[in-house]
Amino acid sequence: MTIAGLVLAGLAAALHVFIFYLESIAWTSPRARATFGTTEAEAAATKSLAFNQGFYNLFLALAVFIGLIVFGAGSAAVGLTLVFVGAGSMLAAALVLALSSRELLASALKQGTLPLFGVVCLLVGVLV
């Protein structure tokens, strides 16, 4: 189960790198505006906020990726701790998103499903 959890957390991290790209690099593009449901004016007005939020997503992904590397290098406790922190924070952010607005529930599910399954698998792997 540990390996499955690490793979799922890695996939969640990859998704969060893509979210970083959309928020911090491509925020005003038609693709990002369609993804987040913003108009050109809204995207322009919120560009600096999205830029900052994108980096939060990138940093969570980096915590997971570094944890995977450290785990693979033989330091399981430190690696798993980093993966739990990164994926657990992704899951918490998805929960906040879901609770903040019913309209954002689908986005929260997309953002939070992989880290949820990753964390559950890791917990089962560690506790069993």
From TrEMBL:
UniProt KW Isomerase keyword: no
Determine the domain of life of the protein's source.
Answer: Bacteria
The UniProt record lists the keyword NAD: no
Q: Which InterPro entries match?
A: DUF1304
User: Can you tell me where the transmembrane regions are?
Assistant: 6-23, 55-74, 80-99, 111-127
Instruction: Give the record's keywords alphabetically.
Output: Membrane, Transmembrane, Transmembrane helix
Q: Tell me the protein's name.
A: DUF1304 domain-containing protein
Source taxonomy: Bacteria, Bacillati, Actinomycetota, Actinomycetes, Micrococcales
